Amino acid sequence: MIQRKRFYEIIRFGVSGVAGFIVDAGIVALFTTARWLGPIMAQAIAFTVAVTVTWLINRHWTFAKHASERWLHEWVRYVAANSVGAVVTNGVYVILVTVTVFSNSPLLAIAVGALVGMVFNFELSKRLVFGSMLS
Length: 135
Fold this sequence. Notes:
single chain; mainly alpha; 4 helices
């Protein structure tokens, strides 16, 4: 059974992820709808802003007891960990839509990829960014 503390960390991390998704999607929609940027450049900017938003939320709420005074170093580790998580998320998505029955359900593949990525990001963030061994 999952420990109470871990359960609340996962919920808070999930809330942070939802906030990050809203920021990410909002920035991409703004830049691409206004035709200021193409979708790739818009996503590059959106990811950077969204990952910073989720880092701030997780730093001050999810893992507040383990936040480092070396905030820039912590942010760099967080971006690196979540970049790996983004590769996992997108990798799961690509695999699901190309070699499974999910090819007819790309939104479901996105959901599965996001869930796998969230678990991956949570573990990397908890262990490598906000782990007590690093504080």
